[in-house]
Amino acid sequence: MGYSLAIGDLVSAPRAAGTRPAQIKKFEGTEFVVLEFISKGSRQVQISQVKPCTDFDWCAGIKLAQLAVGDHVHARFGHGDGGTLWFPGQITKVSPKTFAIQYKDGDSESSVKRQNVRTPADVASSR
Q1: CB–CB of 123/62 below 8 Å?
Q2: pTM value?
Q3: Least packed by Cβ within 10 Å: which of 64, 93, 106, 108?
């Protein structure tokens, strides 16, 4: 496999509609893992089908624990309503699955999902 996986890791794994981002919830023996998919729903998947998530549009390649209140980030404002552009802001609250973001232009959001947040370093490396 070449990498280790742990509970809470952001990964990509197969679903009916193709490979999708997910978070590891638990291991079941040495061959299976239970994932919660970012697009909703959870299921058991063979560990061999799970890969670390490094796609910037999905997971930004960083773990939830690495983001904290006060961190400067870029986020997709209004992504739940189809927003596709990234805007600079600062994390004002961290929840188990979402972040509150205060944007530099004065706007704010209270429940930005993990896949819609990335750090300035991620922005620079994705260009």
Answers
A1: no
A2: 0.50
A3: 106
Nearest residue to 117 (alpha-carbon basis) of 52, 54, 73: 73
Alpha-carbon distance of 5 to 52, in angstroms, equals 8
Q: How far apart are CA 101 and CA 111, in angstroms?
A: 8
Other residues' Cβ atoms within 10 Å of the Cβ of residue 50:
21
Enumerate residues 6+ apart whose C-beta is below 8 A from 91: 67, 68, 69, 70, 71, 73, 99, 100, 101, 117
Spell out the domains of the chain, with CATH numbers in brackets: 10-52 (2.30.30), 64-125 (2.30.30.140)
Q: Quote the tokens at residue 74.
A: 């870029």
